[in-house]
Amino acid sequence: MAVPIIELQKVNKWYGEFHVLRNINLNVARGERIVVCGPSGSGKSTMIRCINRLEEHQQGHIIVDGTELTNDIKNIDAIRREVGMVFQHFNLFPHLTVLENLTLGPIWVLKKPKAEAEATAMKYLERVRIPEQAKKYPGQLSGGQQQRVAIARSLCMNPKIMLFDEPTSALDPEMVKEVLDVMVGLAEEGGMTMICVTHEMGFARKVANRVIFMDRGEIIEQNTPEEFFSNPQNERTQLFLSQILH
Amino acid sequence: MAKGSVNGAQPAPPRRLSWNDPDVRSIVYQAVALILVVAIGWFLVSNTLHNLSIRNISTGFDFLSRESGFAIGESPIAFGPENTYARAILVGLLNTIRVAVVGIVLATILGTIVGIARLSKNWLIAKLSMIYVEVIRNIPLLLQLFFWYAIITESMPGPRQALNLLPGVFVSNRGVKVPAPTDHFAYDLAAFGFLLAIVLIIFVVRFARKRQDATGQAFPVYRTGIALLLGMPVLGWLIGGAPLELDVPKLQGFNFVGGATLTPEFAALLFGLVLYTAGFIAEVVRSGIQAVSYGQWEAASALGLTRSQTLRLIVLPQSLRVIIPPMTSQYLNLTKNSSLAVAIGYPDIVSVANTTLNQTGQAIEGIMIIMAVYLSISLSISLFMNWYNKHIALVER
Q: Does B291 touch chain A (CB under 8 A)?
C-alpha cells in the first residue's frame, strides 16, 4: 500500500475531564472516500476537525500529506491549504457575495489574480449548478444552495482532501438531495480524498470505499459499505444501524 | 388608507369604526400626544415672553454684533477684546469642534486597540485591557479631567525651570511649547507636499488594488504611504531652499513667547475625553467582534487565512454592523462631554457662551446658542453615521 495521505496514530483528546478521542488509529489512502457515522457525542466531528487543526489533539500524531500537525503555524497553514472543509451550518461569509466568498481564499491565500480566481469560481459554481446566483448574497439563498456554495468555496482552493462535517443535517429534507448529488458527482469524478461525517446511509453505500463507526471516542468497526450494512460485527454497531435504518 | 380592493373585484374585509380597532386607537393616541406637546410648548413660550416683558429684558440676537470686551485663552483664529460677541462664539465653536474631532479620531483608534486586546489570547494583554476599561469607565469624567489638569499644572515645573526635552521644546505648567515654522515660502511648500502625499496615497491604494487583481501580488501599501507622508513635505522644504530658521519659543519674563503651544487645558481635556471614551469604545468593539459567530473564524481558518486576515476581511466588516450604532452614541457622548471643558478653563462653546450671557444678560439667547450648536454637531454626526450604517448593512432576502 502506498503512503497514506492522512495518518492518525494513537490520537487522544480531552475536553476537560471528558475523553472525546480514545486512541484513534486511522490511515486514509490517496483518493479514498470514507464515511464516518456514529451516535451524537461519539467524537466523529472532533476527529475530522483535528485533521485541519480546528481542534488540537493532546496526544499522538496526525500526519497530513507528509506534514505532521504540531504547533508550528507554517505547517498548519500549509495543511489548511490542502484540506477543504464543509460545515454543518455552511459558515458562508454573509457580507460578501457568492462570487466574493469563492474568490476570497484564492486571492488572499493562493495570491491568484482576481480574473483567474473569478474564472475558477464560475467553473465550480457551474459544477454545483448555481452559476446564476454569483452576484447574490448568502442570505438570499436557500439552505441547499448555501451548502453548495460552501462546497464550491472549498473546491476553489483546489484541495487534495475534502472534509465534510454533517453537511446535510441542517437542511430541510427536500434540499438534502441536491447537496448529496453534488457530493456524489465529486466522488464519482475520482481523485479527491473525502472524509464525510454523515448519517446518509444511501450516500455511504453509493460512494464510500470504507465506512467507519465511532462510539464514545473510539473507532468500533470499519468495513466496506456492503459488509458494514449487511453484516455488522459489533453489538453497538448493530444497535446503531437498527435505530437509523427504519 | 387604501381600503380599495387588491384583487380587482374582490371586496375588502368588512370594517367597523370601533375602539377595538388598533388603527383607530393609534390615531387617537397620536392626536392626544400632539395636543399635549403643542400645549406644553405654547405654555413655556408665552410664560417666558410674559416674564421677560414685565422685567423689561430685551430679547433678540442684536447683542452678537457688539464688542465683546473679553479675551479668550486660546483660539484657532485671531481674537481680541475688540472683536464682537459673534466672533467670540465662533471661537468657542471652533474650539469645541477641534477637541471633538481630534478626540473622536484618537478615542476610536485607542478604543479599537484596547477592545481587540481584551480578546487577546495573551493573558497579560487581555487582563491589562480589562483593568483599563473597568477603571476608566467607572470614574466620573469630571474627576478624571481635574486629575489630568492637576497632573499637568501641579507636577510640571514653572516656565523658568521648564524641562527642555529637545532643543526648542519646553514642557512647563503653561503647556508644551514647540518651535513653529515661520512665514517662509518653503514651509508652505512643505504643507503642500503633505497634502500632495495624501492624494498620492489614494492613487497608490487604487494602483495596489488593481495590481493585486491583475497579478495576485500584494503591494506594500503601508510602507509606501509612510514614505510618501514623510518624504513629500521634506521635498517641498528642500525645493523652497531648505530654510533653517524657526520661530523658537524663548523665555521672556515669566513666560515663553513665540512658537506653538499645546495648552494644559486643551491637553487635559483631550487626554481625559480620549481615555474615558476609549474605555467605552473598547467594550463596543469587543462586543461587536464577539457578536460574529465562531463559525466565521473556523471557515476562514479552514480556507487558510491568517488570524489578522480573518479579523480584517471577515470579522471586522461584519462586526461593524453591531458596532456602528453604539459607536455613534459614544461619539455624541464625547462631543457633549467636551462641555465639561468649562471646569478646567478650556474656552469651548459653553465657556464662551457663559461669559457672553453673564456680560450681556441674554441668558435665553445664550442657552439657545449652546443648544443649537450641540444639536447641529450631534445631528451631523448622527446623519453621517446612519448613512455609513446603511452603507455597510447586510443584504438578506
A: no
Select from A79, A95, A135, A146 the residue whose CB has the most chain B CBs within 10 Å, as the one to mutate to test that interface: A95
- 10 Å Cβ neighbour count for B54? 8
* Phi, psi dihedrals of residue B58, rounded to the nearest 5°: -80, 145
Residue B391's pLDDT band (boundaries 50, 70, 90)? confident
- The shortest C-alpha distance from A210 to chain B (Å) reads 25
Q: What is the ipTM of this complex?
A: 0.92
Return the closest-CA partner of residue A200 out of A230, A166, A175, A236. A166
Residues of chain A whose beta carbon is less than 8 angstroms from a beta carbon of chain B are 52-54, 77, 80-81, 83-85, 87, 89, 91-95, 104-105, 107-116, 137, 139-140, 153-154, 157
- This prediction has a pTM of 0.79
Across A88-92, B5-9, B169-173, B192-196, the highest mean pLDDT is recorded for: A88-92
Question: Does the distance separating the beta carbons of B216 and A107 come in below 8 Å?
Answer: yes
The DSSP call for residue B338 is G
Q: Do B309 and A83 touch (CB under 8 A)?
A: no
Cβ contact (<8 Å) for B214 and A113?
Answer: yes
Please tell me the number of Cα atoms within 13 Å of B69 on its side-chain side. 10
Long-range contacts of A186-189 (CB under 8 A, 24+ apart): A186/A151, A186/A155, A186/A162, A187/A33
Provide the Cα torsion B65, B68, B72, B74; round to 10°: 20
The CA distance from A140 to the nearest CA of chain B, in Å, is 4
> What is residue B395's predicted lDDT score, i.e. its pLDDT?
65
User: Is B304 at the interface with chain A, CB within 8 A?
Assistant: yes
Sign of CA dihedral B378, B382, B385, B387: negative
* pLDDT tens digits along B63-88: 888 888 888 888 888 888 889 999 99
Rounded Cα distance, B169 and B250, in Å? 10
A246 to A211, A223, A228, A235, A241: CA distances (angstroms): 19, 21, 16, 17, 9
The runs of H, that is alpha helices, within chain B are 22-54, 85-118, 123-137, 141-155, 185-215, 221-239, 264-290, 294-303, 307-309, 316-337, 341-344, 349-360, 363-391
Q: What is the pLDDT of residue B1?
A: 45
